[in-house]
UniProtKB/TrEMBL annotation:
Highest taxon above the source species: Bacteria
Xref: NCBIfam families: gcp_kae1 (TIGR00329), T6A_TsaD_YgjD (TIGR03723)
Functional summary from the UniProt entry: Required for the formation of a threonylcarbamoyl group on adenosine at position 37 (t(6)A37) in tRNAs that read codons beginning with adenine. Is involved in the transfer of the threonylcarbamoyl moiety of threonylcarbamoyl-AMP (TC-AMP) to the N6 group of A37, together with TsaE and TsaB. TsaD likely plays a direct catalytic role in this reaction.
Pfam families reported in the protein's UniProt record: TsaD
Name of the featured protein: tRNA N6-adenosine threonylcarbamoyltransferase
Swiss-Prot/TrEMBL catalytic activity: L-threonylcarbamoyladenylate + adenosine(37) in tRNA = N(6)-L-threonylcarbamoyladenosine(37) in tRNA + AMP + H(+)
MF-aspect GO terms: iron ion binding; tRNA N(6)-L-threonylcarbamoyladenine synthase activity
Length: 358
């Protein structure tokens, strides 16, 4: 049992209420209730709306996950929950629910890091994570390059975005082009019919003096908006597919270039790409080609596991149990700015080790 723990994971860092159940590296259930429809009206995520949606969705989503997995709550070896980073109010709903279930069932509680979970989810797709693994996490809130030698205790940030995250840039460019929210899938779809070389948009932070592993997409986003405005001012048609493809090319070029550079610099042979933007078809194709050229093995989970979900939290929780990491205290806080260097938030006292309250 020890090496194949049965863990339920709860994810509420943003607008998805995710509940996953994992047995070791095997995914048994991945139930998601999304409030994205409610946010679409506002063109972005509204924290108060998200928190309320999590409250309403929590119990039915947990019930659905247990039913899908065919397990009883009493069979679980632990409950894992995203303790941060994310929207404070949204996180609080998940953390409170996890505490209630863990306490009521007499199971250990594991507060885990949202970003480390995005890396760990790959174990459900491709088996145990190689150590070390380089991870490129790209989502609406994050663009980070992380080096991990132990997903439960050692995740080192090498670089991150200094302004907009990649996903944020996709959303804003989609808005400029009138493609709706969320922008990532829409841009990807339109870009398939466009020419990626049609417009030469800037590649941020790729100069000789720029920080090697950091990202910047704010200038790119502005460049796209200016280019589109200019065309409209001249009364010319805006070639949406070409703009989408050229923008997407600029983003994926920088992301893959920096990730491979980081692998080479640190002698790491495995690159994992996760987060919502990892579902982007061009990013996957370019990373695949460049990794093959550099002799690096690429691991990208299937798109459904790249976006926020409960399975990734359960995966990291199961790893915590399997490696005997200490459980979290009952006063586990929801920390909206939990640093990635803390894959999980353990208890402070040995008395909270799993099993002590049985």
């Amino acid at each position: 049992m020890a090496d194949e723990p049965l863990v339920l994971g709860i994810e509420t860092s943003c607008d998805e209420t995710g509940v996953g159940i994992v047995h070791g590296h095997t995914l048994l259930a991945d139930a998601v209730a999304s409030s994205v429809e409610e946010h679409a009206r506002f063109g972005g995520v509204v924290p108060e709306v998200a928190s309320r949606a999590h409250l309403e969705a929590m119990v039915p989503t947990i019930r659905r996950a247990l039913k899908d997995a065919g397990v009883a709550a009493s069979d679980l070896d632990g409950i894992a929950v995203t303790a941060g980073p994310g929207l404070a109010g949204a996180l609080l709903v998940g953390v409170s629910a996890a505490k209630a279930y863990a306490y009521a069932l007499g199971k250990p509680l594991y507060g885990v890091n949202h970003l480390a979970s995005h890396i760990c989810v790959d174990q459900l797709e491709h088996g145990a994570l190689p150590e070390p693994t380089m991870a490129l996490l790209v989502s609406g809130g994050h663009s980070s390059l992380l080096l991990t030698t132990d997903i439960t205790s050692d995740v080192r940030p090498l670089g991150s975005t200094i302004d907009d995250a990649a996903g944020e840039a996709f959303d804003k460019v989609a808005r400029v082009l009138g493609l709706g929210f969320p922008g990532g899938p829409a841009v990807d779809r339109y870009a398939r019919d466009g020419d990626p070389k049609a417009i030469r948009f800037p590649r941020g932070l790729t100069g000789p003096r720029d920080p090697v592993y950091d990202f910047s997409f704010s200038g790119l986003k502005t460049a796209v908006a200016r280019w589109v405005e200019e065309r409209r001012r001249e009364g010319a048609d805006v070639p949406i597919a070409d703009v989408a493809a050229s923008f997407q090319e600029a983003v994926t070029d920088v992301l893959t270039r920096k990730a491979i550079r980081a692998c080479k610099d640190h002698g790491v042979e495995h690159l994992m790409i996760g987060g919502g933007v990892a579902a982007n078809s061009r990013l996957r194709a370019m990373a695949q080609r460049r990794c093959a050229d550099a002799g690096i093995e690429l691991r990208v989970p299937r798109p459904k596991l790249c976006t926020d979900n409960g399975a990734m939290v359960a995966a990291l929780g199961a790893e915590m149990v399997a490696r005997g990491r200490s459980a979290s205290d009952w006063d586990l806080p929801a920390d909206s700015s939990l640093p990635v260097t803390e894959p999980h938030v353990p208890g402070r006292t040995p008395a909270t080790a799993p099993g002590h309250h049985h």
